């Protein structure tokens, strides 16, 4: 199978890239080809196209398939594509989305289009969408499925099965079942598997377990992170009076975590996240995602010019000192990055929390000193052989101090950011490099001046 | 609820940190406290403890809870903890793991312990574990659940429901059901929901859909990445004759992706992934995860010393040139990092593939030139005001060239790595910085020599 479909998908991509693909004569052949491509490959192809070509592909696909593909795209990409689709298509795609995906798409659209789309829904669909829209961005409520099954503890398992069967079409999941009392208060959870394998005659109350749940106003990322490792299919979401308002399903939790990981990864490299696939991102959006950071970093780097300016006399007396500037600042930056990357990831995963500040400080200081001892001895040896013992001593002791300080600062910065309510990844690797550069240079010249007696 | 459990979990952590917690007199109180802490919080607490304290907490927990907690830990952490547990506990924890989790743990254990544990299993459990062990590391087969339900197309939905009910205990999932012929060939898939809502009297063959599946020898990361966005609960895995051998469940797919993202994130910062929570990682393991990279990078940075050495005369004639070294190399490194981070993430997500090399080259060249134009003009202006028009011209044109080259090289390196079969993240940010440093310095001095006539 693999060979034929790979050929088909290559051909489809090549055709989409030529404008001639829009040629109505070729459309039927492209359509036939698209039909041969398996679903996961179709999604991958459409993800890589810009909005015009993605819209073309979606129009050529059989309706059921195009809805599944559209559903799998990022909300930003969906919003771009909507601009290129006819109204009828747009209304249908929008109608078929889950309420929480509909809200994610609305967030990316201009207000008047969002309004028009909302008005195109039936009243009941508009109502469930409204529930999700009522919660603030970044909260669990904004990402939950607002449809709940209404299963009560006093129901027999047979009754529960009948109810789930009857409501299966409107529910996003029937596998993880929250149990509520008549006043909608959450009292338990049960899986379809448990209902299914229970003895006849048992009630739901007999087999339900005490619920693990979250509040609709909780942070979406934090909730998704602790919920996923529990291997539960859906997490009940309650309001402040413990009344069930929705479910966070595993697939929505994955989307949340994936988006946050992409954002952390982007920030670590000193860019903003694209929020859509690289190849379908317009060129100017790429520039925009990078230029602000680059300018901020360049301005911070002016600090290093200032530091060096202050030591210009020392430099003029011993030009040899300038040879080691990139090596020393680089090593400091690298050590700081290593610590920052490790701690930022640990914060994201919840392995480290704000109150662990002192524990991290103490770990990173010791790690930095050990790394500094190894590099410092290597530097001492090498520099002594080539440039003499004085330069050797300067380089060795500078490396030791730079590593100790950079690891400590790099490890603490993400925690400090989190404590003051900023994104830990804001202190990105480039930012820490720049900070370590300036500190490292000051240490370097102070040591050089005292050792060389300048 | 939140306040009481937060207090309880704080107290538990504080107690575990004191060695006196092992005091048998205090154990019952710790046990009582542990019982108040919700499951997700228990997992978070145990994840943060070193092996000795984690083993203590696991021993104090009620057996069912401790099994769930142990199951949620990373395999590396599990292996450390096993050293600290009594044999009876170890055998029971090991026995309760899913076959694929058992294999992940075995991979982290010394051969003789792994052997002993395997021999402690019943024959049927040893056999299913053996199926998974038979596939190479990094393949889907190594991560799949080897239990399959044996549902055939000619079965009625009632028969299928009865079969699933009977086998529910041994199956990891009954929600996504692969359909096989008598010779075990995969012919379709159906969800429990579809079986459940089907009309009486229909056969499985009537309602099953054509299967999306993977081969057991496929790469685990790639498969998990394309499978998760499809929002399917389990992916059928087949052997080379299209016979069903297992299922990749959504929770195992998440573990695979999470581990790979942690590895990419670590590499981007120039370290090796810890594969276990930061605070429970021994100090020397932290040093080990960083020192090799740091030494490699320091050795590559010797290149910059060589470049500067070659231009020492130029530097001696115009010491002012040395003031800009960190600014210029830093900007080059940042631009390269931005491109590398973006493309590495796009490769991991499958948005960019090897054959997109030219498309990426062309995008990054244009992005780099645009970034370089902005920074170059800013540099030209600022440097001219402070240091005169000659230096201004040198800085401006160097920034333009450095940005153009760094973005292009930074964008291509991950793709080149992938094409030659290496991990794209091996060309980490620090590595690209070091490369950009050396290139940038050469450009800088060549331009300076020709503009200043040195």
UniProtKB/TrEMBL annotation, chains A, B:
The keyword DNA damage does not apply. GO terms for cellular component: plasma membrane. The chain crosses the membrane at residues 291-308, 367-387, 393-413, 425-447. Keywords: CBS domain, Cell membrane, Magnesium, Membrane, Metal-binding, Transmembrane, Transmembrane helix, Transport. GO terms for molecular function: magnesium ion transmembrane transporter activity; metal ion binding. Residues 144-207 form the CBS domain. Acts as a magnesium transporter. Homodimer. Belongs to the SLC41A transporter family. This is Magnesium transporter MgtE. The gene is mgtE.
């Amino acid at each position: 199978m693999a060979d034929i479909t790979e050929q088909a998908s290559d051909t489809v991509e090549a055709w989409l890239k030529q404008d001639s693909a829009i040629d109505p004569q070729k459309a039927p052949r492209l359509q036939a080809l698209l039909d041969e491509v398996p679903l996961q490959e179709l999604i991958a192809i459409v993800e890589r196209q810009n909005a015009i070509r993605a819209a073309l592909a979606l129009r050529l696909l059989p309706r059921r398939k195009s809805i599944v593909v559209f559903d799998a795209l990022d909300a930003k990409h969906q919003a771009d594509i909507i601009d290129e689709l006819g109204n009828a298509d747009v209304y249908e795609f929008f109608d078929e989305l889950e309420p929480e995906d509909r809200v994610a798409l609305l967030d990316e659209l201009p207000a008047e289009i969002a309004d028009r789309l909302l008005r195109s829904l039936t009243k009941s669909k508009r109502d469930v969408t409204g529930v999700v829209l009522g919660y603030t961005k970044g909260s669990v409520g904004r990402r939950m499925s607002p449809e709940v099954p209404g299963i009560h503890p006093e129901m027999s398992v047979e009754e529960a099965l009948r109810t789930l069967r009857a409501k299966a079409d409107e529910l996003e999941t029937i596998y993880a079942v929250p149990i509520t009392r008549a006043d909608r208060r959450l009292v338990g959870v049960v899986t379809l598997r448990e209902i299914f394998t229970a003895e006849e005659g048992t009630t739901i109350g007999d087999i339900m377990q005490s619920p693990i749940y979250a509040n609709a106003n909780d942070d979406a990322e934090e909730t998704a992170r602790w919920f996923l490792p529990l291997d539960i299919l859906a997490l009940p979401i309650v309001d402040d009076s413990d009344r069930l308002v929705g479910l966070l399903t595993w697939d929505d939790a994955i989307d949340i975590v994936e988006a946050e990981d992409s954002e952390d990864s982007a920030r670590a490299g000193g860019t903003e996240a694209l929020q859509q696939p690289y190849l379908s991102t317009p060129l100017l959006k790429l520039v925009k995602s990078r230029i602000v950071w680059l300018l901020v970093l360049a301005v911070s780097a002016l600090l290093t010019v200032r530091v060096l300016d202050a030591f210009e006399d020392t430099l003029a007396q011993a030009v040899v000192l300038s040879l080691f500037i990139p090596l020393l600042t680089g090593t400091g930056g690298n050590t700081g990055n290593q610590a920052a990357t490790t701690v930022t990831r640990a914060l994201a995963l919840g392995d480290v929390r704000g109150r662990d500040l002192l524990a991290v400080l103490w770990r990173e200081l010791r790690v930095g000193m050990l790394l500094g001892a190894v590099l410092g001895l290597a530097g001492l040896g090498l520099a002594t052989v080539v440039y003499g013992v004085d330069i050797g001593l300067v380089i060795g002791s500078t490396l030791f101090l730079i590593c100790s300080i950079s690891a400590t600062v790099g490890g603490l910065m993400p925690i400090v950011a989190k404590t003051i309510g900023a994104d830990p990844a804001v202190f990105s690797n480039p930012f820490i490099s720049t900070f370590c550069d300036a500190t490292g240079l000051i240490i370097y010249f102070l040591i050089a001046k005292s050792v060389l007696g300048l």
